Here is the input.
Amino acid sequence: MPGQDQQPPWGKKKKPQTPEEMVAQLIKKLQNYFSDSPKKNTSGGQPKKAGTPPNPFAAIGKILTIVFIVMILQGVYASFYKITPGEVGVVLRLGEYNRTSNPGLHFKIPYIDSLHKVDVEAIRKEEFGFRSRYVGERSGSNRHVYDMESLMLTADKNVINVAWIVQYRVDDPRAYLFQIKDVRSAVRDLSESVTRRIVGNMDFDYVLSNRDLLAAEVKTELQTELRNLQAGLVVGTVQFQDINPPDKVKPAFNEVNEADQDMKRLVNEAEEIYNRKIPRARGSAKQIIEEAHGYAVGRVNDAKGESQRFLSILTEYKNAPEVTKKRMYLETMQQIMPTVESVYVMDENQQTPLPLLNLSRGNAPLTAPANTSN
Here is the structure.
């Protein structure tokens, strides 16, 4: 039919083979290559006689040739290796440390050098007292399974339940690979040992209220222990998740906490009243004392001034008695007269008193009282 592909005159056109067919064809060719059955002559002659004995050395030589070719190809392929960013490669030559490779493409001697890749940027984490089900999610259903990890004894012989996390990374790849056989177990054992020792030297209340200080001390001692073991690790973070009493004593512990909170509240209220009343009383007392001191100083100074004035007047009086008397009289009258409302001048030669004009109370003269004398 026009428009359709027509078959070529020499036969049907072969389609591309699938991978399965290609593998099957390769296996068939290998079987024919190592087969001892007679083959036809390629020139169209008669096949070989069936009674001809096969040559075993020819088959062994073919096998060794194929093995040698495979080993060469594998060696060429294994001579080059790639280190990705964040990793380093530790190369061993005949089982002995040779070098450390940085990220990039590198060459090694096949069948002599061996490569170990170590991720030096990954943060490894160990959990104690619980296990995370997902990243960032802590499993609470299996919390009781790990009580033996978290139960600890404090210095005041109380039992406490502590759950914490240790995060670390590889700092020395060579030491990480060859100094310790099981690095993860070493980190877990050291962390648990250090934490139990530190908690065992602290009181129950101190552990509950100072988890940051506790974590810092655990981190410092754990890093020291890992450095002594030459583990090639750096501790990044030690974080305490839960610090609680065991479930069996939680009700009693809650009652103790409530009583402690009430006590603290009452103490704070008393201190508030104390801070409000006592400073005021102290200020009043100090004010009274200062006023008394000021009054005493004033009285003493006034007495000293009066005595000094008296001595001065006495000296002047001895020098001029009449003048001093007259002056003292005038000064005294100058002080008394402004306070007197009515002034009368008495004269022995006059029977009726003479009123004196008081200029400070107006210009009107004072009227003399009626003479009642007979």
Summary: Confidence is low (pLDDT under 50) at residues 36-45, 363-374. The radius of gyration is 58 Å. The chain has three domains: 58-118, 124-245, 260-339. The first strand starts at residue 80 and ends at 83.
